[in-house]
TrEMBL record:
It is an enzyme of class 2 (transferase). GO terms for molecular function: nucleoside diphosphate kinase activity. Belongs to the NDK family. Its EC number is 2.7.4.6. ATP binds at K9, F57, R85, T91, R102, N112. Homotetramer. It catalyses: a 2'-deoxyribonucleoside 5'-diphosphate + ATP = a 2'-deoxyribonucleoside 5'-triphosphate + ADP; a ribonucleoside 5'-diphosphate + ATP = a ribonucleoside 5'-triphosphate + ADP. This is Nucleoside diphosphate kinase. SUPFAM superfamilies: Nucleoside diphosphate kinase, NDK. HAMAP family: NDP_kinase. The keyword Secreted does not apply. Keywords: ATP-binding, Cytoplasm, Kinase, Magnesium, Metal-binding, Nucleotide metabolism, Nucleotide-binding, Phosphoprotein, Transferase.
Amino acid sequence: MQHTFLMVKPDGVRRQLIGNIVRRFENRGFVLVGAKMMTISREQAERHYGQHKEKPFFGELVDFITSGPVFAMIWRGDNLIEVSRIMMGKTNPLEAAPGTIRGDFATYVGENVIHGSDSPESAERELENFFSTDELLAAGVLSSATDR
Ligand code: RTP
Ligand code: MG
């Protein structure tokens, strides 16, 4: 059983794709255990994409992800991280297979509708960047000290 962080990016929210995307993961048997609409601060965005700091597209990436509300989600399920990355499709939508989220909804690498953590370590780090301890407790990602 894994938890992961999935996020409908500002282009997906603007295009009213939240319901379609949530349904795909629910249909696959995954469980939505936490979610919120939020606008990301620049600092949070730079932390989220810290691994890309030196890339030429970093500024554009941060501008885009802070350009409007995102829909941040916590999901639970077996083999969730691997399967969710397959369901999202390749980073560049031009290479993403039809039937994947990016393959169905996007054409431009800079606006590719959805983010999903790429490993258990990224999931933990990203969930902590987007959700408070109370929210992670409520979602069952963290267990309270009294439960231990
Ligand atoms: P994400 O982190 O957003 O879920 O996407 P990803 O794992 O599939 O791809 P990653 O390598 O982490 O890249 C993060 C985001 O940077 C943008 N990008 N632009 N212009 C370019 O060549 C380029 N390459 C990457 C994409 O929007 C990608 O989602
Ligand atoms: Mg990534």
